[in-house]
Amino acid sequence: MAGMLEFVVRVVGVIVAFLVAPLVVGQAEHKVMAHMQSRLGPMYAGGFHGWAQLVADGVKFVQKESVVPAAADRRVFEWAPFVAILPYMAALAAIPIAPGIVGADLESGLFFVLAVMSVGVLGSLMAGWASGNKYSLLGGLRVAAQLMSYELPFVLSAASVAVAAGSLSLTGIANAWNPWWLLWQLPGLVVFFIAGLAELQRPPFDMPVADSEVIFGPYTEYTGLRFALFLLAEYAGIVILSALTAVLFLGGWSGPGPDSIGWIWTILKTAVVAFVVIWVRVSFPRMRADQLQKLAWQVLVPVALAQLALTGIGVIAF
Known about the structure:
The chain is an all-alpha fold. The chain contains twelve helices and no strands.
């Protein structure tokens, strides 16, 4: 009975976190961008600084009709938003907030999270292919190009931390973390973060959804709640990327004070990384296709391989 109760509590906790955290990041993005660009934005919904604007947008999306184009592959078109968002819920369940505070403490947690994050990108591919729209198809092809280019440095940089910790468990990696890793694993951190942005199709790597070129890429034909699910998947991806970066490279719950407040440090580090994600969006223009591929294959992959080799040498030597 106690085991069943614990299971229910963990499931409910993951679901609540999954529903709340992306909305918080979405609201933060709206307000941070507004202040960085010196524009107020919506200020009335909910009162203080328009805190309920994202909720109002959600209600608006629910009220809109979800249209399926006549030329679309209906079944694939309808399933694409769910394929895009559900893997992030599974990934969130495996990321620990503190020792014992995790949906599912897996021995191969890092491998699991990286695998399901890759599945989420397939939702964009499905949407681009199934829409029956040339702009959506072009956006889907761009998603495929980014996926093939940036998956390798993303995984290699994460593997470097796993080698350093001697574990694929996210809890084990966080427990093995040492402050001097901030210098030792710094190149891996930079590669992991940049590749993660590209995996999420976030600016300046938003070539698949470039509104000035392909309208809105794979999501052009989506309306109503299905379109809202893609937006929610983007914010959920930011949460996963930020939390994973905090656990792998920033020590997770390591910080001043007793272990009982370790979860606060994890959340603060995740919030800081999410802020940097928003900051990058405001600060850098969209990259061209050739620049995107050059950055991946000529810069990130060599740096990730060098970091992995350096980590191996360090583990053997020390």
